[in-house]
Structures are given as C-alpha cells and as structure tokens.
Specification:
It is a single chain. The chain is an alpha/beta fold and about 160 residues long. About 35% of the residues lie in helices and about 25% in strands. Strand 5, helix 5 and strand 6 form a beta-alpha-beta unit. The radius of gyration is 18 Å and the shape is globular. Belongs to the complex I NdhN subunit family. It is a peripheral membrane protein.
C-alpha cells in the first residue's frame, strides 16, 4: 500500500455500489486513512461493531427496545422479568435526519463484520438502495494490504 493514498478509487467504488466489504491489515491504522478521506469528501462516518447488534434492521432503521442492566437490583413483581426496557432511536435514520445540509451522506463503518449471516449482509446490500444517502463499509477480515470489493460480489461468491 502506498504511504500517501488519495482514496479516490475507494470513494468511487463506494458511491457506485453503495456497500463495500473491506479486508485490512491486522496491525490496523489504514482504515483510519480511508475514513478521513471520506470525511474530507463530504460524508459523515459512524463506526460500530457487528457483535451484539441483534436485529440489524431494527437497530439501524426502527425505534427498538433495549433492556438496561439491572446492576444487582431487582424489582420483584413491579416490572417485567427482564427489567425495565428503554426505547432508543434508530442509529441510521436518526443520524440522517440530523446531517448538516452540505453533507453528502452517512457512512456506516461496521467493524467485525465476519459475524454477520448471509441474510444480514443482504440487508446491508439493499439498505443503500432504499436510502441512497446511506453507504455501508463492512470490515470482513484481515489481509496483508488494504483491499475492498463490492459487498454484493462477496456474498454471491460465498
């Protein structure tokens, strides 16, 4: 990988396909360069991990309930057995509604994407078609150099 990369090919492929699967060197650092290039080109980036997401559609686009940790205190007979449930706004649609007017769109940068099932990856492929301002980048594994490919192509070959 070149020390100074412009990221133009990465951005062009992301805008074209809407969802990319990336493979990064295990020592890290190179993905930050590409996130910076995306921000310089007018995108807002939001990073999160794939582990523990649950229903990815609800997490990204619908208001959903989350059970809070009980911290050793239980309400016996007063609430549900799982404890109090807090309702949180969807990550993607909430951030889209609050984007600055000059921003091109929202990049959802998902770390540890190797835990996703085929159905979840297909949902991520279709999400940019439903909402064109959303682009998806999923880190799928390690490689000796930073490499990307259309997520749709990766799912088809798997």
């Amino acid at each position: 990988m070149a020390l100074l990369t412009t990221g133009k090919g990465f951005i062009r492929d992301l805008e074209k396909s809407g969802a990319l699967g990336i493979f990064t060197p295990l020592e890290g650092g190179s993905e930050g360069r590409y996130q910076r290039r995306l921000r310089l080109n007018g995108y807002e980036s939001f990073s999160f991990t794939a582990k523990g997401l649950g229903d990815i559609e609800a997490y990204l686009t619908k208001v959903h309930g989350v059970s809070t940790p009980h911290l050793g205190k239980k309400n016996i007979g007063q609430q549900a057995a799982v404890g109090p449930i807090c309702f949180v706004p969807p990550i993607a649609t909430y951030r889209l509604d609050n984007l600055p007017s000059e921003c091109k769109g929202l990049i959802l940068w998902i770390v540890e994407g190797h835990v996703f099932s085929r159905d979840e990856l297909e949902y991520l492929i279709n999400l940019p078609h439903q909402e064109p301002r959303i682009k998806i980048v999923v880190e799928l594994g390690g490689e000796r150099y930073f490499r990307w490919e259309s997520l749709e192509k990766i799912v088809q070959t798997a």
